[in-house]
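Weekly structure sync, notes
Attendees: PL (lead), two postdocs, one rotation student
Agenda item 3: pending single-chain targets
PL asked that the sequence for the first pending target be pasted directly into the notes so everyone works from the same version. It is reproduced below exactly as submitted, 173 residues in total.
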Amino acid sequence: MIRHTHHELWAAALILTGVAGGWAAAVGAGQSPPVPSGDLGVLVASALGFLVLSTLLRASGLKWVGLLRQFEAAALLPDDDRGRRRSAFTPRMLGLVLLPALCVFVIRDTAIVVVSLAVGLDWLGKAVAGAGWERMNGRHLWLAADPEDPSALRCTAVSPSPATRTASGALPE
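Predicted structure, written out during the meeting:
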């Protein structure tokens, strides 16, 4: 099983790294940058606005875009069926770096950068929404390894932290 938040963070980081890498490669090779320097401030402001909007929509209960219903519908895993934890990073995710990097480097179009940023920031918004739900509900969300429904979410209760002890090992008064 893979933690939902970790999976979304990895995907966002890889696609945003791909955009940055393609941009750096284009500029380093002496080509024109994908976004003119005068529009860079507009791109950054738009990206931050999209991140906030995406996170708010993903954390809502709206039917088509909100993830709250999926989080609430996640089946609770029993303690004896925790499954084997897997890394959130898999080699097939390298395409998330290579595809945007190649597109940004070769095509060098503002639309390619905007779409790639939007996808990466949407994944980041999903991770933030998932982390917020986990924190508020005291549960971890997992992507279960279910062949019938690979995007099914499961959840486990977070174990409470152990009681604080003094230097001698006794409970504080």
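Discussion points:
- The chain has a mean pLDDT of 87.
- The chain is about 50% helix and 10% strand.
Action: rotation student to compare against the earlier draft before next sync.
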